Amino acid sequence: MKIAIGCDHAGVDYKLVIIEHLNKNGIETEDFGTYDKQSCHYPIYAKKVTDSVVSGDADFGILVCGTGIGMSIAANKVKGIRAAHVTDCFSAEATRQHNNANVLCLGQRIIGEGLALKIVDIFIETEFLGGRHQERLDLFDK
């Protein structure tokens, strides 16, 4: 499994913690930046991560900003992306099971580090249920 990960200036700390956590658990990551806390434009990093997911180079994407909201808006502009702004464990599981989300968006300023790591684990470990859920997703393409 390979995870594409990116952030803006408000998500640098969590991005690094998440990369370390994933790598420690044998999951390959690709870091698309940003790499410091200088103010920057989050859509640039959302596009880099989503391009990696859409191309199939990465299995999933993770985006971190202050709230996760801006990243989710930017990511969902890309065809083929189903980005979910998640703040709890139940939603992390449900968005994979029901929505087949392929990008997780987190807010460093609104959830704790431990919770963020739990959400990441649940998101990447949960399988899409398909069936009626796939029928609903197919409606997006019509």
What topology emerges from the helices and strands here?
Layout: E1 2-7, H1 12-24, E2 28-31, H2 42-55, E3 60-65, H3 69-75, E4 83-85, H4 89-99, E5 103-107, H5 113-125, H6 132-138
Parallel strand pairs: 1-2, 1-3, 3-5, 4-5
CATH topology label: Ribose 5-phosphate Isomerase B, Chain: A
| Estimated helix fraction | 40-55%
Kindly report the oligomeric state of this protein. single chain
Outline the low-pLDDT stretches. Answer: none
What pattern of helices and strands is seen along the backbone? EHEHEHEHEHH
What integer value in Å does the Rg equal? 14 Å
- Secondary structural class: alpha/beta
Rough shape? globular
CATH class: Alpha Beta
| Strand residue content | 15-25%
Order of strands, widest sheet: 2-1-3-5-4
Tally of DSSP β-strands: 5
Count of the separate structural domains: 1
What can be said about this structure in brief?
The protein has 142 residues and is of the alpha/beta class.
Features:
46% helix; five-stranded parallel β-sheet; Ribose 5-phosphate Isomerase B, Chain: A; 142 residues; alpha/beta; globular; 6 helices
Please provide a written account of the structure.
Helix content is 46%, strand content 17%. It has 142 residues and is of the alpha/beta class. The chain has one domain (2-141): Ribose 5-phosphate Isomerase B, Chain: A. α4 (89-99) links the parallel β4 and β5. α1 (12-24) crosses α5 (113-125) and α4 packs parallel to α5 (113-125). The protein is globular, with a radius of gyration of 14 Å. The model has no long low-confidence stretch (mean pLDDT 97).
